[in-house]
Specification:
94 residues, 3 helices, 2 strands, alpha+beta, 38% helix, two-stranded parallel sheet, flat
């Protein structure tokens, strides 16, 4: 699609149409929470609101990250076990 029309800068495009834009790292749960709080606080401002959450497809799983072929495809049992092990290593903080 980028050959016909560039999506970026997406936030500037939304602002150009008069929207209140909040852009965050879509993998950061705290940033998402703050964005939703900001959106709720801005609801009386008379502008429509858009939250753009930048994400990476398959983030945190070595064989899935940035691989479009995994969109809508379920891993087999071995792939699932590997993915869960990688995600737990990165994100479980106890």
């Amino acid at each position: 699609m980028e050959e016909t029309i560039a999506l970026e800068p997406l936030d500037e495009k939304w602002r150009g149409f008069g929207w209140h834009v909040i852009r965050v790292d879509g993998h950061d749960h705290e940033a998402l929470h703050r964005a939703y709080e900001e959106a709720c606080g801005a609801m009386g401002g008379g502008k429509p609101i858009v939250v753009i959450a930048d994400t990476v497809k398959g983030k945190g799983v070595s064989y899935m990250e940035n691989q479009c072929g995994w969109h809508g495809v379920a891993p087999n049992d071995e792939e699932y076990a590997q993915a869960m092990a990688e995600l737990e290593q990165q994100y479980v903080k106890c």
